[in-house]
């Protein structure tokens, strides 16, 4: 079996430190308001729109009366948690 090595992109440490300093001195410029709109497309299939990005499509597995075409809400929460932990770890 071949061993695979992955190299992660380097974090701009100085840029991150600069961002933290700016946020500490002028926090009013760094407040974030997050908005999302969810639309039910029928059954348990939903689309959530965030900013001007493609929709996040959410479904349920067949045994929960969905069509099993995309991750369910719990799986999206786990994915979000994993991404947050990864970003925190890298920073």
From TrEMBL:
<dbReference type="InterPro" id="IPR052924">
    <property type="entry name" value="OsmC/Ohr_hydroprdx_reductase"/>
</dbReference>
<protein>
    <recommendedName>
        <fullName>OsmC family peroxiredoxin</fullName>
    </recommendedName>
</protein>
<dbReference type="InterPro" id="IPR036102">
    <property type="entry name" value="OsmC/Ohrsf"/>
</dbReference>
<dbReference type="InterPro" id="IPR015946">
    <property type="entry name" value="KH_dom-like_a/b"/>
</dbReference>
């Amino acid at each position: 079996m071949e061993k695979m090595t992955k190299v992660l992109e380097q974090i701009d440490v100085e840029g991150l430190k600069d961002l933290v300093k700016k946020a500490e001195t002028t926090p009013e410029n760094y407040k974030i308001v997050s908005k999302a709109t969810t639309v039910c497309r029928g059954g348990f299939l939903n689309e959530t729109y965030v900013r001007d990005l493609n929709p996040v499509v959410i479904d349920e597995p067949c045994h929960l009366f969905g069509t099993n075409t995309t991750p369910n809400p719990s799986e999206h929460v786990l994915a979000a948690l994993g991404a947050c932990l990864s970003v925190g770890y890298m920073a």
